[in-house]
Design goal:
By secondary structure, the protein is α/β, with parallel strands linked by helices. It contains 15 helices and 7 strands.
Length: about 450
């Protein structure tokens, strides 16, 4: 009868098996991270038991080991391992199950210094997994983070990390070159997040584009590193999407970054532009004293509250005009006390209301760009433990891997018959306007000839 593999070896075997199953790479990456967390925690607990008993697994109890002071006095305790029991650990990636060692015949009670008597939650060891994973993307220091903390046996093998690295980079390169001709968007969201990726340099942006198709389905469109959020950087990024077949969307949603706005208006001239209301609220409130911020914030969001119009409200230019009048009322109320805040609100005010021309059921999701910010925030949280990426390739590859995986769970938009008609009318008016006759082609429109 074959002997059961020790838990650490069993987990290593599970990791090795992942790359022989022919599964989707993104799913494999997630499973490697999950199994890596199990491997780290399992190895750490087994090491604690070794230290507690004074001997490694399968060593006899008579073996003496050296103390920290260098003395050769025995540190061996009576007792022995007596199997394992499953224990669930809650991590930020979800619950995982480890095999917790059971001991018999000991004079002292074993308590894990890592988890205490009842394991329920851990974040510290998970960050080590992420740190090792990120380092491995550039095949640098593949065992460093884990070996420093838990010894060389805790780290993923170099071949496993190298396999992950090469697969991610290859998948990302293919994704960046894919044809976008079949992607037709109603809404395009643009944003950037900053990461440290070059030694001695400030954090630099990763530019991202995602959208909602004409069928209401979410799609992750583009991702690229840039030196700055300049007009040139955004222009190159968006032009590449166009060159690969992406058609202009109906509405572009973004924050107020000048370079982004300028590039979007140049590349997608027919599209409407919506400025993120959440970002604008932050800008306004930053110029209001703490004592009045709650009242001003409520007044700001009241501008865009359509509830008092009743259930028969319809999207269109009349809504845009109505909200613009409310912006004027806000300015009149607060302009005397906070002129800087009101000036901030009135700057580019027309970009705050284009969403009102779109289906009502989409308003709360297309009037801000916080959708991608939450995912970017999760990415930053996962990698902040390392402080800086080892390079641009590792940075953009990991950000892509996280966002691509997250995009599988993004919610689409509800498409009603009324909403579809509204979008169709907007598409015809913005992207496919009727051809105007040239004045010379229509005698009735030709200018009168001056008398000689």
């Amino acid at each position: 009868m074959a002997r059961t593999l020790p838990p650490v070896q069993a987990i290593r075997a599970e990791i090795d098996a992942l790359f022989t199953e022919g599964r989707d790479l993104v799913e494999v990456i997630e499973d490697v991270a999950r199994l890596g967390a199990r491997l780290i925690i399992q190895t750490a607990v087994e090491a604690e038991v070794d230290a507690f008993l004074g001997r490694a697994r399968y060593q006899r109890a008579t073996t003496a080991i050296a103390s920290d002071s260098g003395d050769e006095r025995p540190l061996v305790r009576p007792g022995h391992r007596n199997g394992h029991c499953p224990t669930t650990v809650k991590t930020t990636s979800g619950p995982i199950t480890i095999a917790r060692p059971k001991l018999r015949g000991t004079t002292d009670k074993f308590t894990s210094r890592l988890f205490g008597t009842g394991v329920t939650r851990t974040h510290a060891l998970e960050t080590l997994v992420i740190a090792s994973f990120v380092r491995g993307l550039s095949v640098r220091d593949v065992e460093g983070a884990l070996a420093d903390a838990l010894g060389p046996e805790a780290a993923l093998s170099k071949s496993t990390v190298s396999t992950i690295c090469q697969a991610i980079v290859a998948e990302y390169d293919t994704w960046c070159r894919r044809d976008l001709t079949g992607v037709e968007l109603d809404y395009l969201f643009l944003d950037a997040s900053h990461f440290k990726m070059h030694d001695g340099q400030r954090a630099e942006p990763i530019l991202a584009a995602w959208g909602i198709t004409t069928a209401g389905k979410p799609v992750f469109v583009g991702l690229a590193a840039a030196a700055a959020e300049s007009t040139d950087a955004w222009h190159d990024f968006l032009t590449d999407l166009i060159a690969r077949g992406l058609k202009p969307p109906l509405l572009i949603i973004s924050d107020g970054a000048p370079g982004l706005i300028s590039a979007a208006e140049q590349v997608f001239a027919p599209s409407l532009r919506q400025r993120c209301l959440v970002h604008r609220a932050r800008n306004v409130l930053a110029k209001v004293s703490a004592g009045d911020q709650a009242e001003v914030k409520a007044a700001y969001w009241q501008i865009f509250d359509l509830s008092e119009l009743g259930d028969d409200v319809k999207p269109g230019q009349h809504l845009v005009d109505w909200v613009q009048r409310r912006i004027d009322a806000f300015a009149e109320t607060w302009g005397g006390r906070y002129p800087a805040a009101v000036k901030c609100l009135l700057t580019d005010r027309q970009s705050l209301t284009p969403y009102l021309r779109f289906p009502l059921e989409h308003h709360k999701r297309v009037r801000h760009s916080n959708f991608i910010e939450r995912t970017f925030g999760e990415t930053r949280r996962r990698v902040k433990v390392i402080g800086r990426f080892p390079g641009e390739t590792s940075c953009v590859s990991l950000v892509w891997a996280v966002l691509d995986r997250a995009s599988r769970g993004w919610r689409g938009f509800t498409m009603t018959s009324k909403g579809l008609r509204t979008l169709h009318d907007l598409r015809r008016a913005l992207l496919h306007p009727p051809t105007q006759l040239h004045p010379t082609d229509d005698p009735a429109l030709a200018p009168a000839t001056e008398a000689a």
